[in-house]
Write a structure and sequence with these properties.
The complex is a heterodimer of chains A (about 650) and B (about 525). Chain A has about 650 residues and is mainly alpha-helical. Chain A has helices at about 1-30, 30-55, 90-110, 120-140, 140-160, 175-200, 205-215, 220-240, 245-250, 255-265, 270-275, 280-285, 285-305, 315-335, 335-365, 380-395, 400-420, 420-445, 460-475, 490-510, 515-545, 545-555, 555-565, 570-615, 625-644; strands at about 65-75, 80-85, 165-170, 170. Chains A and B meet through β1, α5, α6 and α24 of A and α7, α12, α14, α16 and α17 of B.
């Protein structure tokens, strides 16, 4: 089918863009051409995604899975993995998000990165990222997905360390980049193990083969537990969940468009996509579902508390991202797969918007990121301020903006299919989200200016504000794709994805959604808690500014723990990194290698040499001594003969 | 001509060495050009060999036999299967690159240097072609001599210590192998109607039937010799010294090709000749492979000298190869074969890159660098690609080998437990740790050392040296079928034979009831 050839081109265009800008971008010395190539490569992908979406609408739902085999990749013995693409309802949604939001961020970057000596390099990396991300979501087997998975990790690494000669917090951007790669590798270790287990169990890595076979298995098959847990380890790495979330806050060392594209809207949702893609496997492993839901809920709450006290505008957003990703896993873990993906989409809109907005602020403030030195910026940055506010209302879950619909869907499903504990964690995190986000708005855009005299903040150029406006629109209306039945909608989003998750739903024995009175009550509660968060933020940070200080003085230890992010980094550093480095140097290298093995080897050599020196005395070349020995021998033999 | 193609490839560098030896001492440009030309001819011939080689056959091809020592039935017997084919192409590919890499850095005694490099190539090729154990042994020992001189004459400060250590270590192992070879030949003579032979193909039929008590000792003698070469932990300590002291081209050949002689020997001799002993010892050898992976990675991480870091990373990478071999599955063995090629390319390239910076700064200590990405962006980009290949990033070559090895050992019925593969997989994390950390310290940050600020980026010659390697790094990563396809039938046949042996239906097993000592059956 021609659509699949087009899809293939959509994947290849960014690769071509990467090669173009990577190989000759440095020589071109024209930002216009570099940016045009970079943006066009992604824009073309978006056009293809739209065509794909509308073509799919014209097909009956059961025929909406299309595949294209390109060439065999790794073949050995009985093993085979192909380079082959698969487009279905789930991947087309992801493709729309990645290329759509990706395109906007490319356009924004043309303005944001203007004048940077690495302009060409930036666009090359961004295009490579889009290529990898599209490979990840369009792969038809686990191994090709892993290629995309590692590819996006590489781009994340390259872009976090983009300004490789800059300092970042206590270290450098290089530290942050390396940390991201290595922590993700720990997750990849789990992913790889999962791949091996899948191959051993199913004899194939193709999604269709694996999932068809799995659908015939019974719930609770032990190997599926291990497979899903191993895959989830991979997801915790890429999607920054407890315990592997530590790299994401540091990833803010990268330029802000990178934070928006990779570390908020797209790459970090790869883990969510992967779990959703394997929904059948998870549905067959109830224990794993429980783990996913619990980790998601715990991460949502944990990260939200840290977000409350951070003073770096991007740090707040980073913890917010971790928290929102937690929501997505909470949804997956209770079997609400489409709700999870729905939140992926709305979050991509408003979090990309918020990050790009923060980028405009940082741009205006000449690289200042500390919100304690901002305030009152709404007047100088009217477009940024308004769009940022839209994003904030959306993420806070205040109707009718997009975040309300996706978050409320998750909370309701967590309650009705999970437990009240999961709901409560999500509910509390929702209140905290509103609080820390409106705190951010209050401290950045409202109140009195706190910046120094010499700074003259100015609104960003059109290449930057246009993407903000588009994203603000999407954040505002994006939720209407999934209006729940209880509010008179048809939940079109869920219906669209229904065929993809049908096998999992069957295993979970889910009943059709029923409108209940409890749903309205919970909906009311979550809106109320969001509004309460807003109100508190207004009180504490605009009206009665002495309250936060009082709280800090009342609860100094709690404040310090939150400010230092529960000391998780310090724990890992002390428990893993330092012992590994010191142990390797002192015990393994200077201990075993130099002091044991080499001593033994050199010892053998010395013994041999000593023996050689000893034996040399017998071959001095002095004839007289030879004669002497000869005579002594004769005497001995003759004597022995006589005695005998 | 086609039936003598192996000899042609083998004798081209020998002829080159002879021609170089006849040239005047001061004609340095001519010496280099002639040497390079001969190595390129060998490369061209081996590409032709690659094209005519029939990948659908698992047996030996292009065989040539000429009687040599009739009294002992020793003959000049050469031939290749898919496994040796790939290693031969790797050898002829890396030699011109190594020569080109030392184009400017070697100036003293140039004539001897070029001649020795060509002799080294010939010796290595002979090792990969020989189908007679005696002939194999001759090449095995022969290739020590040029390597010894290359380290000892053109090496660094401690070159004599390193050269002697290299020589003695390897020699210790190979003497045991010689004993085993003679023992093996005498065993053939002791059979009813038998005669002394060192012919590998004939011994393939005889040796598996050797009683377990003797087979174990022969297996250990061969394995010890190969284990030193690989090197398998704890026999690896010659490697860091040899690498650090060797000139760049020496390191490239050492890591790229010479180490593979050890793993190749395990595949060519230990597995098919002594299958029962292999069954007994494979858990330990696979275990040592895993120790190598993890130990090599940790020790590599803390090295202050980049070259030593790369050397220890070889221990780690070769650990994967050993694990894949002793998994005794097609996937694992195919992975090991392609991993040998991968390691030759990526570690060879790493040594080239280290050499390039050493030529500029005359130091290899990581702390002497920093922020090199700014003055040398092209260099930084090449280093990045090669590093990613070494880390095993999917889409580049390293991943293909590591993945197949881990998959093969995960489902190996001989190892019998997925834990080997799971523990070995941590090497995937560790490789990222030691390489990224060193990359960061060398290339990122501010360019603080004043000497670094005005460093010239790579020259056209240096780029020409690296581009072919990078092309293959990508080729094998994206479409490994070109190469895996050549060795598939050979590995399949080897694994098939070993599995038949385990089932007791292999012809060789009926000669002597050796299978009662099978570990699985004993329990």
């Amino acid at each position: 089918m021609i659509l699949m050839q087009l899809t293939c081109c959509a994947v290849l265009f960014p690769l071509i863009g990467f090669l173009f800008n990577g190989l000759i971008g440095r020589k071109i010395k024209n930002e216009g051409i570099v940016a045009a190539v970079g943006c066009a490569a992604v824009g073309a992908g978006f056009v293809v995604a739209c065509i794909g979406f509308f073509r799919m609408l014209g097909l009956p739902p059961e025929q909406r899975t299309l595949t294209l085999d390109l060439f065999p990749w790794i073949v050995a013995g009985g093993f085979r993995a192909d380079v082959a693409l698969q487009l279905d309802q789930l991947s087309v949604v992801m493709m729309l998000i990645v290329t759509g939001v990706g395109f906007l961020i490319h356009v924004y970057s043309a303005g944001y990165m203007h004048g940077d000596p690495g302009f060409w390099r930036f666009f090359a990396y961004l295009n490579l990222f889009i290529f990898s991300m599209l490979t990840l979501i369009l792969a038809d087997n686990f191994l090709l997905m892993f290629l995309g998975w590692e590819g996006v990790g590489l781009c994340s690494y390259l872009l976090i360390g983009f300004w490789y000669d800059r300092k970042f917090e206590k270290g450098t951007t290089g530290d942050a980049a390396k940390k991201a790669f290595i922590v993700n590798r720990i997750g990849d270790f789990g992913f790889l193990t999962g791949i091996f287990l899948i191959y051993v169990t199913f004899g194939s890595l193709r999604f269709q083969t694996v999932f068809t076979q799995a659908a015939a298995m019974t719930v609770g098959t032990p190997v599926l537990l291990w497979i899903t847990l191993a895959l989830f380890v991979g997801a915790t790495g890429k999607s920054a969940q407890i315990p592997l979330f530590v790299w994401l806050p540091d990833a803010m060392a990268g330029p802000t468009p990178v934070s928006a594209l990779i570390h908020a809207a797209t790459m970090v949702t790869a883990g969510v996509y992967m779990v959703a893609r394997c929904s059948v496997l998870y549905a067959l492993a109830p224990v794993s579902m429980g783990v996913v839901a619990s980790v998601g809920a715990a991460t949502a709450l944990f990260a939200a508390t840290v977000g409350l006290v951070q003073n770096d505008i991007k740090k707040v957003l980073a913890y917010s991202t971790i928290s929102q990703l937690g929501y997505m896993f909470l949804a997956l873990g209770v079997g609400a797969f489409s709700a999870g993906i729905f939140h992926v989409m709305t979050h991509a809109f408003f979090k990309a918007l918020l990050f790009l907005g923060s980028g405009a602020v940082i741009h205006a403030m000449h690289d200042e990121q500390d919100i304690r030195r901002m305030g009152g910026l709404g007047k100088s940055l009217p477009i940024t301020y308004r769009t940022f506010l839209v994003g904030t209302i959306a993420i806070a879950g205040i109707p009718p903006l997009s975040g309300f619909f996706s978050k409320d869907e998750i909370l309701w499903q967590a309650f009705s299919r999970g437990s009240w504990v999961l709901w409560l964690a999500g509910f509390a995190a929702a209140g905290l989200t509103a609080l820390y986000m409106f705190r951010l708005v209050a401290l950045t855009f409202q109140g009195e200016p706190r910046w120094e005299k010499g700074v003259h903040p100015h609104e960003a150029p059109a290449t930057m504000t246009l993407p903000l406006i588009v994203l603000a629109l999407l954040s505002a209306v994006g939720g209407f794709a999934g209006i729940p039945h209880s509010l008179g909608g048809g939940n079109a989003f869920e219906q669209w994805l229904e065929p993809v998750f049908a096998p999992a739903a069957e295993k979970l024995a889910l009943s059709l959604p029923q409108v209940e009175i409890a749903e309205y009550v919970l909906m009311g509660l979550s809106v109320a808690v969001a509004l309460a968060g807003w109100y508190l933020a207004r009180m504490w940070y605009l009206k009665r500014k002495e309250i936060p200080g009082l709280l800090v003085r009342k609860l100094p230890n709690a404040y310090r723990v939150l400010l230092n992010k529960y000391y998780v980094d310090e724990l890992y550093e002390g428990a893993v990194v330092k012992p590994a480095v010191r142990g390797s140097e002192l015990l393994l290298w200077k201990g075993i290698d130099v002091n044991v093995i080499d001593r033994v080897v050199n010892g053998i050599a010395q013994i041999t040499a000593a023996a050689g020196r000893g034996l040399r005395l017998t071959q001095t070349g002095v004839v007289q001594s030879y004669v002497l020995v000869f005579l002594a021998g004769v005497v001995l033999i003759v004597g022995w003969l006589l005695v005998k | 001509m086609e039936q003598h193609i192996l000899s042609l490839i083998l004798f081209t560098p020998l002829a080159g060495a002879l021609v170089v030896a006849l040239l005047g001492r001061d004609a340095s440009r001519l010496i280099k050009t002639v040497g390079l030309l001969f190595s390129l001819v060998a490369l061209g011939l081996s590409v032709w060999l690659f094209l005519v080689f029939d990948g659908s056959r698992g047996d030996m091809q292009c065989i040539e036999i000429i009687p040599w020592i009739p009294a002992l039935n020793v003959s000049y017997h050469v031939g290749i299967d898919g496994i040796s084919l790939l290693l031969i192409v790797l050898t002829t590919f890396l030699t011109p690159i190594a020569l080109l890499a030392s184009w400017e850095s070697v100036t003293v005694r140039l004539k001897g240097y070029v001649a020795l490099m060509l002799l080294l190539e010939a010796g290595t090729l002979g090792v990969f072609m020989a189908l007679d154990l005696f002939l194999f042994y001759v090449f095995w020992e022969f290739m020590l001599i040029p390597m010894y001189f290359i380290i000892g004459i053109w090496g660094g400060q401690e070159r004599i210590y390193a050269a002697v250590k290299f020589f003695l270590y390897t020699m210790a192992g190979s003497l045991l192998m010689l004993v085993a070879i003679i023992w093996l030949g005498s065993y053939a003579a002791s059979l009813p109607g038998g005669a002394f032979t060192t012919d590998l193909l004939r011994l393939y039929a005889i040796a598996p039937g050797i009683p377990m008590g003797i087979q174990i000792w022969m297996f250990l003698a061969f394995t010890f010799s190969f284990a030193i070469k690989v090197p398998i932990f704890p026999l690896h300590t010659w490697l860091p010294d040899a690498h650090v002291q060797a000139p760049t081209a020496g390191s490239v050949m050492l890591a790229g090709v010479l180490l593979k002689m050890g793993t190749y020997g395990l595949i060519r001799f230990c597995l098919p000749l002594f299958p029962y002993a292999t069954f007994r010892f494979l858990p330990y050898l696979a275990g040592l492979g895993i120790v190598g992976i993890i130990y090599g990675a940790f020790v590599s991480m803390v090295q202050p000298d980049i070259k030593k870091l790369v050397a220890y990373s070889s221990v780690s990478h070769l650990g994967f190869v050993v694990l894949g071999i002793f998994a005794l599955t097609e996937e694992g063995l195919q992975g090991s074969v392609i991993q040998m090629i991968n390691h030759g390319l990526s570690t060879g390239a790493l040594f080239l890159l280290v050499g390039m910076i050493y030529d500029r700064r005359h130091t290899r200590l990581i702390k002497d660098f920093g922020g090199l990405a700014k003055p040398m962006p092209v260099y930084a980009a090449f280093f990045m690609i090669v590093m990613l290949s070494s880390i095993g990033l999917p889409g580049l070559n390293g991943f293909v080998g590591e993945f197949l090895i881990l998959l093969g050992s995960f489902r190996s019925s001989f190892l019998g437990s997925p834990w080997y593969a799971i523990v070995a997989s941590t090497g995937v994390i560790l490789a990222a740790v030691y390489l990224l950390w060193s990359y960061q310290r060398i290339f990122f940050g501010k360019t603080e050392h004043p000497e670094d600020q005005a460093l010239p980026d790579l020259s056209v010659r240096e780029i020409a040296v690296l581009v072919p390697i990078v092309l293959f790094i990508v080729w094998i990563g994206v479409y490994p079928g070109t190469f895996l396809g050549k060795s598939a039938a050979s590995t399949k046949q080897l694994i098939h034979r070993i599995e038949e042996t385990r089932r007791g239906s292999f012809a060789g097993a009926s000669l002597e009831p050796g299978h009662e000592i099978l570990p699985g059956e004993r329990r």
